[in-house]
Specification:
The protein is of the alpha/beta class. The chain is built from 14 helices and twelve strands. It folds into two domains: about 170 residues, 3-Layer(aba) Sandwich (Rossmann fold); about 150 residues, Response regulator (Rossmann fold), CATH 3.40.50.2300. It has a seven-stranded mixed sheet, sandwiched between helices. A five-stranded parallel sheet has the order 2-1-3-4-5, sandwiched between helices. Helix 4 packs across helix 5. The chain is elongated, with a radius of gyration of 20 Å.
Length: about 325
Amino acid sequence: MRRRSFIVGLGSATVALPISAQAQQPERARRIGVLMTLAADDKRGQTFVSAFVERLQQLGWTNGGNAQIDMRWGGGNADRIRQYAEELVALAPDAILAVGAVGLAPLLQVTRSVPIVFVIVPDPVGAGFVESLAHPGGNATGFLMFEYALSAKWLELLKAIAPAIRRVAVIRDPTNTFGTGQWGAIQAVAPSLGVEVTPVSDRDPIEIERVISAFASKPDGGLIVTTSALAAVHREFIIALASRHKLPAAYYERGFVAGGGLISYGPDFADQYRQAASYIDRVLKGEAPADLPVQAPRKYTVAINLRTAKALGLTVPPTLLARADEVIE
């Protein structure tokens, strides 16, 4: 069975153990819940889950054998994510993988006893999810997305690849602390780069399109997409919007660039899923989340799409190309 078909097949249903596997397993299969904020058919989401499952297999946990993985895909819908959080906890799992603050928050509202390992959470201490990075102190630990100061890099890279820009629209989630933190870092560096920044809420695609269309009617504009669950869900829509209006755009994750975006800078999210599998393994073997420190990303990468640059009439400086970890032609 192909990997992608396998992952999509997980859907929002419980993965059942084959009869042959049940016969071979004298001990109870360990139950692992996974709460994704993306939709089940999202290609990036499938890539991330594949990385997680493959790492678990390397550590000796076979889905359908000594492990049972219960998947839930929220599709960016907050109500659905809360519902799935309750469903997963009700299954009495041995551990849960939570994605982003949007996935972690409802799980912690439901349980303070089930071990939770999270990925791609910007500010777990500020949000009250853990007591400190070194000593989480509760039932959750995991992997930090990045510090807010990194957000300034998006504007710096945008100016480097499109030096003519003077105005930048910043798509962000204004309802969360991480949306405010990222916006603050970008806003702080904007004057030194000669750029005027304008915040755009990511809550409603129709409103995003209206605001960006009006913004693009004037010259020398650019776009930054900060991290949020909704930005990830609306990834293809936002990329198409930037392309239609000829806006050079910087993103927080290489998946946007692979999908046609101009430039990105950020951590390797697939690597966080692999690291999370290692933490899940340690939890299943008896370690407590409170004793596992929250870890920062191991590497940040720059990705550039040369085809998109050419379509925008941009020439990527050789110095910037030299900095890139991935160049899509």
